[in-house]
């Protein structure tokens, strides 16, 4: 069947990424993705993965290279990536690396909606987020230690390193926001803002004239 010009899904990209290393059957793909925490950036469900593999095969991006059977377990089909699959993967990777795509993560929207809560409630929810981020970072460390133990080339999990860095930055930023709210550096909308000295228009103009002269 002729290949589609539709962009590859995130799960399809993850499958092709793995098959650049070696041929695998879908169950092994699932296990490796979980070990490498790929399921933190891609919705990974066994049914959807098998469907994705079938679609990639129908588009000639994958091909069957072997079948395996262990004991009484069902026969497993091993897939390898085709040249068309490699070319399509590389083409989409180039576009995704260079293009700034819209980011629809919910955290910024939640921050914008946060003023509908009370200051105390907002801070409580941020505290819970900080706790969850710390737990996730602890789990990330376990995964990184495992990957380092496998002596796997870091380019195969550079995506995970990027997500881990994002989480660290989000934790640092959120902790700073909590600190600013608690200290009064940022005031709640229904609170009286602190009186701060402001530069007058005249002073600003004089300074500009001095610099120009």
UniProtKB/TrEMBL annotation:
Ranges for domain Transcription regulator PadR N-terminal: 15-90
Disordered, as annotated region: 187-213
A Pfam match: PadR
Basic and acidic residues: bias regions: 187-197
Gene3D superfamilies linked to this entry: Winged helix-like DNA-binding domain superfamily/Winged helix DNA-binding domain
InterPro entries per the UniProt record, alphabetical: Metal_resp_DNA-bind_regulator (IPR052509), Tscrpt_reg_PadR_N (IPR005149), WH-like_DNA-bd_sf (IPR036388), WH_DNA-bd_sf (IPR036390)
Protein name as it appears in the record: PadR family transcriptional regulator
Taxonomic source organism: Amycolatopsis pigmentata
């Amino acid at each position: 069947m002729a290949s589609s010009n539709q962009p590859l899904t995130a799960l399809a990209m993850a499958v092709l990424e793995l098959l650049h290393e070696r041929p695998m059957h879908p169950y092994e793909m699932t296990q490796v993705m979980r070990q490498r925490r790929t399921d933190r950036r891609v919705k990974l469900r066994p049914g959807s993965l098998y469907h994705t593999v079938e679609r990639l095969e129908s588009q000639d991006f994958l091909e069957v290279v072997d079948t395996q059977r262990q004991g009484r377990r069902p026969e497993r089909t091993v897939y390898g990536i085709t040249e068309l699959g490699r070319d399509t993967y590389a083409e989409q990777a180039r576009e995704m690396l260079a293009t700034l795509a819209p980011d629809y993560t919910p955290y910024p929207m939640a921050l914008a909606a946060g003023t509908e809560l009370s200051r105390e409630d907002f801070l409580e929810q941020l505290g819970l987020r900080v706790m969850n981020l710390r737990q996730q970072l602890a789990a990330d460390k376990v995964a990184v230690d495992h990957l380092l133990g496998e002596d796997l080339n870091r380019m195969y999990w550079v995506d995970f390193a990027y997500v881990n860095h994002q989480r660290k930055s989000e934790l640092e930023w959120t902790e700073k926001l909590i600190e600013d709210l608690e200290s009064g550096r940022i005031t709640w909308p229904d609170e009286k803002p602190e009186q701060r000295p402001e530069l007058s228009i005249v002073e600003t103009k004089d300074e500009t004239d001095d610099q120009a002269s």
